[in-house]
């Protein structure tokens, strides 16, 4: 499990990309990497997500940590693995889906919010428990979960900003997922990739400050 966690820990910030087109996803990913955010979660709400994953993997290789998000079926997990994804993320935890994701051999992250859901995810053996939507409870909620689950690998997604990044890590995050606060739908729709890169630099600087 340590090996499966290592890339996520190193990457620190994983951008959650929900683009209206494959081209927009690729261009946003280029802007993110240029800005210093190398964790790229290409969600299945993006058209042709496996194609985007394959293109980004060919383009960046080991310089970026590329995976698939919003995985809701075993077929999606398999397609992402074939495209070269290194991790899989589901918004929730379903035993059949979690097992299919784990069967690919890729780092598996499934969503949870309540203590019962965290228990189910960890019992299934997923590598990372995605606390979503983390904005509902903030860093204080993540810290509270650390009480009964001191060793659970938790990754908050939702409500993560450069301004509170240090609080999330202080609360015990192994990594964080950042969606609209990093790659907003408005920026993508307007083609403001320079703005995506600017925000990525803010996240990268905040992460560097956390790491001293």
UniProtKB/TrEMBL annotation:
Gene Ontology MF terms: lyase activity
SUPFAM superfamilies hit by this protein: Aldolase (SSF51569)
Tree of life domain: Bacteria
Pathway of action: Carbohydrate acid metabolism
Gene3D superfamilies: Aldolase class I
Keywords: Carbohydrate metabolism, Lyase
One Pfam family from the record: Aldolase
Family the UniProt entry places it in: Belongs to the KHG/KDPG aldolase family.
Assembly information from the UniProt record: Homotrimer.
NCBIfam families, A to Z: eda (TIGR01182)
UniProt name for this protein: Bifunctional 4-hydroxy-2-oxoglutarate aldolase/2-dehydro-3-deoxy-phosphogluconate aldolase
Natural source organism: Agromyces archimandritae
